[in-house]
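Private note to self, pasted from the team thread so I don't lose it. Backbone tokens:
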């Protein structure tokens, strides 16, 4: 731990360490890190599966874990460079998803195809500096247990999707989703919510100004 702190507190050592671990100008680890370091640091649950055409842009100094019987399908990208990516048990990350940490996905979640979750935003406020040179901000995305996210959806930084909620296909979710609620559209709005008294999913009236 003392060594890690020493590296973190010394800009020169930090630059050198990052140079040794990462491909310069690319947000991905060097091959030796992927083959010889990451497998010993990142947790993989029993019977979990990462398809071989998944792109694992994972660094050893942030957490990446995949739970029991969870699957990451082909053409997906996992990036934990700016924050941990934690995926629970029996969760499916469908084809061509892009997961950029910090984010946490619970158990029994279904993620369809072409979904982007990014816990990272680029800084843009200073108009005299290109956006690519401004510091990034991060806010953790949380997807609770039993959620279903429809194809081609985008979930922005800091959003929490409550238990057993549904995100309709093609949604852009910018605000928290309550549990047992279906949201859809851009920006996503509640479409239906479960009523525990009647045991039914009832339509939610659109806001008056829409
Ligand atoms: C949300 C979904 C599950 C339908 O749920 P449902 O309970 O049957 O909802 P309904 O069809 O009764 O639609 C309810 C309302 O939501 C709207 N709605 C449905 N899907 C929507 C979407 N993707 N975006 C925006 N609004 C949508 C409907 O137009 C309807 O609006 P209205 O009340 O004004 O008529 C389905 O539309 C969907 O998006 N599925 C995702 C499919 C997918 O991604 N599959 C990939 C394989 S896992």
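Design output:
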């Amino acid at each position: 731990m003392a060594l890690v702190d020493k590296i973190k507190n010394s800009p020169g050592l930090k630059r050198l360490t990052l140079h040794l671990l990462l491909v310069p100008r690319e947000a991905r680890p060097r091959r030796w890190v992927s083959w010889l370091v990451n497998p010993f640091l990142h947790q993989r649950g029993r019977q979990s599966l990462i398809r071989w055409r998944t792109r694992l842009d994972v660094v050893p100094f942030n957490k990446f874990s995949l739970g029991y019987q969870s699957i990451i399908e082909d053409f997906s990208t996992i990036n934990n460079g700016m924050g941990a990516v934690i995926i629970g048990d029996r969760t499916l990350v469908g084809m061509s998803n892009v997961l950029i940490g910090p984010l946490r996905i619970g158990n029994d979640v279904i993620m369809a195809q072409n979904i982007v979750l990014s816990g990272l935003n680029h800084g843009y406020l200073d108009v005299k500096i290109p956006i690519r040179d401004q510091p990034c901000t991060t806010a953790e995305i949380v997807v609770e247990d039993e959620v279903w996210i429809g194809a081609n959806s985008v979930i922005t930084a800091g959003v929490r999707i409550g238990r057993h909620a549904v995100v309709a296909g093609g949604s852009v979710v910018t605000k928290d989703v309550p549990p047992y609620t279906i949201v859809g559209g851009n920006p996503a709005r509640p479409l239906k919510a479960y009523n525990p008294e009647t045991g039914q999913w009832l339509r939610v009236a659109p806001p008056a100004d829409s």
